[in-house]
Fold this protein.
Amino acid sequence: MEKKKPSHLPIGAQEILNTVTDGIIVIDEDYKIVYANKCFLKEADMAGGDVIGNYCYRVSHLRDEPCDPLLESCSVEEVIKNGKTVKVIHGHYGSNRKEMAVEISSSPYQDKRTGKRYAVEILRNLGDGSNAHLKFNLSQRLSEVGLLAEGVAHEINNPLNNILASVEMIKICFGNNEIIKKEADNALKGSNCDIKKYFDLMEQEIERCKDITKKLLLLSRPVSSSNDIVNVNSEIEEAITLLSFLAGKKNVMVKRNLLENIPLISFSQAGLRQILLNIGLNAIQAVQDEYGIVYFITKKVKDHIYIFIIDNGCGISSEDIKRIFDPFFSKNKETTNTGLGLPISLSIIKSLGGSIEVRSKEGQGTKFIIKIPINSNFS
């Protein structure tokens, strides 16, 4: 059978791209825009000559320098330099220099003739109405918090590794050099100063800090599909560790009753950690200082694992309980609660095949019931 030759488009690619109702731009490694279709020029309210050859951060963000990759996803950093495909929501300035929410899908492209690499961005205007504003705020805040946590964790982890290595080298020097060891012992004689004890303590605390940065990195990970093998009890213990500072500050008791030999599940580890932290944080904030108790309980019922997070706090009224999963809903004005934790948790659990129920009575407390399906491939 004779192979058919590749068909050619009846019209040029330029005409096709200009009929697309989403903005399309191509950015090079120097942050310069090398192509923009008609829709992008219209949304930006700029002529082609003012866009082509100009820097993307000047055109879209009205900045004089590139966006900080620690605070928001950048196509040049993520797509061109790291070869990733990203989908984010940014705030761009359009007609009359008014900020609008824009959903960006960015993919890498390499010119085979020159070897140069580019980022191809498709930009969809979400508008500047209330719904777009809500979507923009929710996605942008999550993106920025995740990127910031990842950046901070990396920045802290590197010097911690250097400090730990230095402490270990000092211990080796002391242990291998009898003269230094003898002089140190003589100098500290009668002072009850155990140098080895303090070096060991330094190592323990550095390892503790490194463990915290690892947890920050986990929280910064995007919520994946259910492809992690997860031990629910272990994730609860990790969440309790992260919540222990706030619980200790309020002198709140955190108790657990976890099912032994709980089955492993196929789930998003980062997603489950976020759910536990969000609901656990709400529970600690809801209880009274000194008298508050928060319980974490796990059970297996048929082919599901149930996680109960129960508090003896102020409870939720029948009117408010209908709204607790609405974005930005929060009755607690005394905290920095943004009202995003519960809607995020519900979105994550539903996307992964689980559910969340809430039962509450004013003045008595609240019970959250997280239901997660067990994958039969694990035992």
